[in-house]
Specification:
Number of strands: 10
Strand order of the largest sheet: 6-7-8-3-9-10
Radius of gyration: 19 Å
Number of helices: 9
Distance between the termini: 35 Å
Largest sheet: 6 strands, mixed
Shape: globular
């Protein structure tokens, strides 16, 4: 993958990324490009390294080797101040939503603006109102997380991820704990939000194949590598044996070679 530093239009370019935890090689030479203005969804069996990869992309973890280029900047060797400037490009929707139980929806969504910007109260209120409108929560500003359904909590968490108008949105299993109807609604909302704000989105999901309807590209992880990567049509037309087994629900829960499991 010897290309231009921005991956010929890619917002994120990952090359030969490796990360080991003790004896376990979790990332084993990951190569991935995430095009600008599209949704790239990372799928694969539990334990294959999806969330660990996402934590490298949003700079929560450093790799043992390999590179990550974000908007033309190689970020893995940057110091923490420079990495913080890169992080300003990101919005992050965590698996559990991570809302503050003691704060109202308004205060939860406004929190990044209060803590990280110099915006005044009127500017913050206007931005929060606009963002809640975008995710279908207008009028819910005074509610607390405990007073909301799981789907509404996900919407509030998405609003908070979007409040600083990031260029790149990262989502880790955004529909965990939701029923199929609400899962479909959240996927649709992610697509709508991505298009409305012209975002690059990287999503880790277990909702296969339902999530494919809302994705532009699919990256299938297997044993710490991207084994298959392409448009939804390309991936679905693939005869890749492990991907076919995964779609049929026949992939192992912890995706590792039998020898590694036996050595435990």
């Amino acid at each position: 993958m010897n290309r231009n530093s921005d991956g010929d239009g890619a917002a994120i370019v990952v090359q030969e990324l490796r990360r080991r935890f003790g004896r376990q090689q979790v990332l084993d030479g990951v190569n991935l490009e995430c095009p600008r203005g599209q949704i790239t969804t990372i799928v694969g069996p539990s334990g294959c390294g999806k969330t660990v990869l996402l934590k490298h992309l949003n700079l929560l973890l450093r790799p043992d080797s390999g590179t990550i280029v974000i908007d033309g900047v190689e970020v893995t060797a940057l110091g923490w101040r420079a990495q913080n400037r890169i992080r300003e490009k990101f919005g992050m929707l965590f698996q559990a939503g991570a809302l503050f139980d003691s704060m109202s929806v308004f205060d939860n969504v406004a929190f990044p603006l209060v803590e990280l910007t110099n915006m005044n109260r009127e500017e913050i209120a206007a931005r929060v109102e606009e963002t809640l409108e975008a995710v279908g929560l207008r009028g819910m500003e005074g509610k607390y997380p405990s007073e909301m359904s799981g789907g509404m909590q996900k919407r509030a968490a998405l609003a908070r991820a979007m409040i600083r108008r990031p260029k790149i949105l990262m989502l880790d299993e955004p529909t965990t704990g939701l029923d199929p109807t609400r899962t479909h609604q959240i996927h649709g909302l992610v697509r709508k939000t991505q298009q409305q704000f012209d975002l690059t989105a990287v999503m880790v999901s277990h909702d296969v194949p339902a999530v494919f309807e809302f994705s532009d590209r699919i990256a299938f992880m297997h044993q710490g590598k991207i084994a298959l990567n392409g448009t939804v049509a390309e991936v679905m037309a693939s005869k890749h044996e492990n991907f076919t087994m995964f779609l049929q629900g026949r992939a192992s829960g912890i995706d590792e070679p039998p020898a590694a499991a036996a050595a435990r």
